[in-house]
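Risk register update: the risk that structure generation would not scale has been downgraded. Supporting records follow, first protein first.
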Amino acid sequence: MRGGGFRVRPDRARRRPFRCRSRPDSPGQCKHSRRLSAADRACRRGVAERRVISGPAARIDGAGDPGSSGEAAPVRDAPPDLTSTAAPVAEDDRAFLEALSPVLSGWGVALDSRQLSLLLSHYHAVVETNRVMNLTRIVSPADAAVMHVADALSVVAWAATEPCVPAAANVLDVGTGAGFPAIPVAIARPAWRVTAIDGTGKKVAFVGRTAASLGLPNLRVLHARAEHAASTGEYDLVLARAVAKLDPLLTWLAPWARVGGFIVAYKNAELTPDEADAGAALASRLALAETEGYSYNLPDESGPAMRQLRIYVRGSGAGQGAPDAPPRQPRRRTNTRTQKHKERKRGRR
């Protein structure tokens, strides 16, 4: 080619379309071609492609094509459709209710069908959001029904035996996380006014969206930390589940409860001696009177899990001897390069 351009080889000027000899009738649809069809890609992965049509009958690829009978053939050995959640959700709901109902009936906590449906919706929201955000490690229906929902509603069973709890109690859930116990308590007791706080903004946003979708007007969510927020001392019940040990926990919870209000800490049945002694000493300093707790069992595959509610009543002098929570200092970032330069400069001197 003149003009200093590139010269095109005669054998590459016009290239014929590639046709595999193994499939002369289907060019461009075998493993030798540059573009593979969906069937060839599935065959290369070792997966037999099936096309399932919604309805009572299904057809296999090729049915209705020229040369076939054209009749719809049912796929008997086809794998379950993972995109459809109708069957799995029904099984999950059944397992959830079968695990939850005996525990609540044993405690005397009665819920209607609408309340059970709301608890199921909350569980499904937790499982769906847990795929993109770490909310909990317990996601199976039976375990979540017992270890999360039933455990959260144990305070409702205890309140039914405590005459000093108002019928329209003002409740605070500190460190709500995925909404336990705030959302189950708000569902089981519509007359209670529940406030949930948490220091993680994503979890607060999740609980707020879930409460709005469930239609819970008695639940509000705040983004705050209990040890830093301005406590008002107006709550009848202050709840804390899986937050911290008793030593710092009582310091954070005491200012939120009103005089005569209850502080409820979800704990295992057996506390370590150090935690029990530190909690008793701090409760005495905070003028918190520990009352008889509420012990209960949660069924588990390995045996019943012993749980308890550690309950304290705030006295008139609560908070006067409370130690101030140390403020969190921002972490200083050290520039390693600048630090080494300063060290070399000092060495030259």
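Supporting record for the second protein:
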Amino acid sequence: MDERLQEFLLMKQKFSGSFNEEITVAASGNLTFHWLNNTSHSLYAISSPHVNLNLISTDALEDVGIIVDNRRKALVRLDSDEVLAPVTKIGKYRCVTLSFGKLPKHKSPVHVLSQKFSLTLIHRLFGHINVRDIKKSIESKSITTIRINDVDWSGIDKFQCKDCLTGKLTKHKHIVGSRLNIKSPMSYIHTDLFGPVSGVDITSPKYFISFTDENTRFRWVFPLKKKDADHILPIFQQLVNYIKTQFKVRVLTFHMDRGSEYTSTMVRDYFKDKGIIPIYTTVGDSSSNGIAERANLTFLNDCRTLLSSSNLPASLWFYAVDFATLRRNAFINSSTNSSARAKAGLAGLDARTILPFGQEVMIHDYTQTSKLKSRGITGFALTPSKESHGYLIFVPALRKVIDTSNYVIVVHDSTSLSESSTHSVFDNLLESYHVTDADTDLQKAAVEDVPVSDISPTVTSVIPAGSDNPADFSQPSEHIIDVDIWHA
């Protein structure tokens, strides 16, 4: 499981050559070299269909005490300056003949990266979104960096997720009527309040308030500890200003129920001052505000599913709701046949900028003052930060959620927060990432040339939720992978 997960995470990263060309990874394994001084080293290898030579990074050599001496045109031992093999320059590469390579006597495994993503893996990666909506979103490029042919769609009509059945089972649907067709984005907003949430600690929010645009179905959620007018009025003010600044649109109408928090004099006076028309549901007909109520039901179902599948504590419930909102805005909405981000004029969500909810990571322990103590501390990814280019990470040892970009994905079995569970959030997801017999290019290449290149992965960090800037932001230089070998 560890190796398959590592291979999946490799696919989420971008590898670049010395001239910044992007290189696709197809397979990985190990090559053994027998040097002039009769010593041997096994070096990690990666294969690419787009490069006709095998490539090894200098970091891989330095890890075993070998450097490239350009003056002597040789590989030499770092400690003794002893020549291990001659180096020949071919184009932009420095190459070592594979006559120094030892062919294995038996077939050995490599990890095949070119297998298609399974439906289960994609479904879990994107936080239990309906697989049909995922397919439509990839086809429409609402989700980028994943192509439609990268996924095995067989069985989509019969696909079933037990976590979704557990978290999202509902009564029969309410029959809804028609509404006016609002053509102007961000001008007609539905809102509803959910809560209180029981069984969480005093520091956690008890409620959340959601807003849904009638035209685009774009959604926002905000946490609340109390639901009175004093707490919701600042949120109305914040949202109205945000829409005016970011979308150059004035909110004309808010549609809501007749809760006292909405009908208070304070809130009514604000609407009157801004020229906003409040529309309230009639008595006993809360279903007339069905858009907002269904949004809250969707978020609640997503929240239960994410917490259940990740084994994270209930006190983190609003982070699950926030993560669900980010995803729902990115994927195709069946009522509009488009994604909310696309209708709002925002770029598609880059799949490389998110992690599965609850994914184990290792972060830098900024509280550690001793130079002898370890610097890494275990955390669990929640959702992209809205205030930085970092990620919100739950750190059990610190009992807090921190905003950081200084993290590395953990590729071994996840440390579960539940005593009854010892599985990572990726368990049972990686059927398509398996070990195969390596009668492959890596072994066939043992009679060819192996270039040594300064190739290292560029780990991509996250874009803050709601950002309309699709650019990637580089993460600190704590590389997960240091070694690259390629062969076409």
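The domain at 360-409 is CATH 2.30.30 (SH3 type barrels.). On this basis the risk owner (M.S.) recommends closing the item.
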